[in-house]
Amino acid sequence: MRRNCNSFNMPTTTDNVKLDDGQSLAAARGKKVDFPPYAKIFSPLYSIEGDYKGQIGTWAAEMSANKLEPKTIELEVEKFIKANWEEKGFTHVSGDGFVGFFIGAWANYDRKDEFDKIFNSMTANDYQATLEIYGQEIFPLQPGQWDIPDVVHVFPKLEKGAPKDMMDFIQPKAVVVAYTIGMKVQFKDQFATDFNSHFKSITKQSGGFVIFGIDIGLGGESTSETEKTTHKATYDESSGVLTVLPNNDGRAILLGMVGQRSNGPPPPAK
To answer: Which top-level group of life is the source organism from (predicted)?
Structure first.
C-alpha cells in the first residue's frame, strides 16, 4: 500500500511482453517466471473506500497519547496441529505431531541454523502467545478498471494442461486493517533459557528474527536487514516473556481480507 494512494497496487506494463508456452503455463500455475525486460508501472487494483486517511490519523493521535487500548487474542496454535495446510493454500509446510512455530533468525545471524532448529521443534505446550491489536476497522474495497467481476463466464475455457482450480476465484470485498500490533510470547522451561542466549547473541550482532510473520530488529545501525524491520522487542529472562513492541509510524497494517467466492465455471455445452 502506497502512503499517497489508498489503493493496493499491482505491477503492470504497456509493453508487449511475449512468453513461450512453457513460461505461460508456469505463470498460470503460480510459479516464478523470468520475464523478458519490460517497463513496470504500478496500477491501482483495488481502492479503499471510507475515511481511511482520517482513521489512520485518529489512531496515530490516540497511540501517541496512550489512549489506544489493544484487543488481545490468544494464539491457540494447538488447534492447527492436524490442519490440512495444503487445503488452506500452503504447500511448503511440513510437520507431524507438533505445531510449526513459524520463527526464524535473519540470514546474517551466525547461529541461525541452531536457532531455527531449536525453536521450530517446540510443541504447543512449550510456549504461550498473545497478539495485541491496536485499532481495527473493516474498509470496503472498490475494484479498479482491470476488474472482471464475472471472469469465469467471460473466460470459460482453460489452456490445455492448465490446472482446473484456476477457475476457483475469490473476489476481494473488504480489508481488515489495524493501526499496529504487538505480541507477547512466553517461552517455557529449557526453551526460555535457550531463547535468552540467542536473544543476547542476536542483539550483540545487531541482527533480528521473524516470529509469526513479524520482522523484529534488535539494535545496531541501519542495514539492508534492519531497514525492513517493523518492530522492536524486549525479553525478560526471569519470566521468559518476549514482548514485541507496537510501533507508531503513521502506517497501518493489513490483518486480512474479506472475499466472496465467484460462481464456478458454466456447465459444458451439450
So the answer is: Eukaryota
